[in-house]
Structure formats: C-alpha cells, structure tokens
Amino acid sequence: MIDAEQVVTLLGDSLTAGYGLRPAESLPRQLAARLASGTPPVRVIGAGVSGDTTADGLRRLDRDVPAQTDLCVVALGANDMMQLFPTDDVRDNLLSIIDKLRQRDIPVLLSGMRAPPWFGAYASAFDKVYPEVARRANVPLMPFLMDGVALHPAYVLPDRIHPNAAGVGKMADALAPLVRAALAALRTR
Fold first, then answer.
1. Which of 1, 25, 111, 124 would be 165's cystine partner, CB 3.0–4.6 Å?
2. Structurally, how many domains does the chain consist of?
3. What residues contact 68, with CB distance under 8 A and at least 6 apart?
4. Domain span at residue 155?
C-alpha cells in the first residue's frame, strides 16, 4: 500500500486558516499544491481556526484532526504570544496536544512561532518553548513558520501581522520539504 494517499492535517490558527485570503491562497491549499507531484499522493486538511490559542487547539483536537491523519502539523501559539500568555502554559498545552495525538497514533511535526524582539524578556522565554517541546517530545521542528515573512511588508496583509498570498507561498515552500521528510520517515517504520 505504498501508493495509498497520505493525509496531513494542519492544526492551527489564522495562519493556517487563511485569514484575509481566498481559499486557494491559504496554507493548506498552497502546501497541497507543493506536495502534489510526490508519490504517494498527499491530501492536506486545514484545521485552522482564527484566534485559536494552544488551549483552544487542545480542546478541539479530537474533533478537528481526523482519524485517518498520517501526520499532524501543529502550528499554534501565535495568539498565546500576542496575548502574552504564560510560556509555561504554552509549553504544557503543546506537550498535551502531542501526547493526545500520540495516543491516537498520529505523528507530529511541530511548527514554531517566535515573538517580536520588542516583547523583551517575554520574547526570550517564548522563543525557547518550541525547541524545548520538540526536544522533550522527540518530534521534528520547523523553528519558525513565518521565517522570512513576519515583519516584511511585501509578505503581510495591511494589518502587518497576517501573511498575504505571497507570504503564505514562502511558508508553504519552507514547510513542504519538512512534511515530505516526515511522511517519508513514516513509510520506513
């Protein structure tokens, strides 16, 4: 069954939901386009809800991550950061999400977030959360989903926060090889 379709679910927030974009411009659709040429075929399911925090993602995980998911990309935390939620809570929620997915035999690729430098000491503490979670849970990490996109006027909407279609394209370009590698590793186990 090596050619059976593989399912990737993006559990996230507005960054994966495609806030302010047409559906075809969203991260799930752009990522699917970048994975379309591979074998086996990959289907990408968007499970992003604008405004969601890590706690929200944990609450809706069982409902929104389908049982047939072969890989879950966990891309949550931007809203926790924007609201300055305690970094211990963010870390614990991410570890709980990964644990719940493991209980369902669903592997995880963790997609990190970084705080802007003007958040001072909070930024320093927040930026350590994702590498720590990846290490403790032994899951692959994309260090920063918006690398090369955040704070770049050419890649964000007028709100200067959410990525525009070109910014999402850069995110999909960076995420696609990590998803391919994670899926390939699954086929060899």
1. 25
2. 1
3. 7
4. 6-187
Rounded Cα gap, residues 154 and 115, in angstroms = 20
What is the residue type of 154? A
In-domain check, residue 102: yes
Residue 1 pLDDT: 41
The CATH number covering residue 22 comes to 3.40.50.1110
- Cα–Cα distances in Å, from 108 out to 5, 24, 168, 184, 188? 18, 25, 21, 13, 16
Q: Cα torsion for 147, 115, 83, 15, to the nearest 10°?
A: 0
pLDDT of amino acid 146: 97
CA distance 116 to 19: 20
Residue 1 domain-assigned?
A: no
CA distance 109 to 140: 5
Residue pair 2/145 in contact (Cβ under 8 Å)? The answer is no
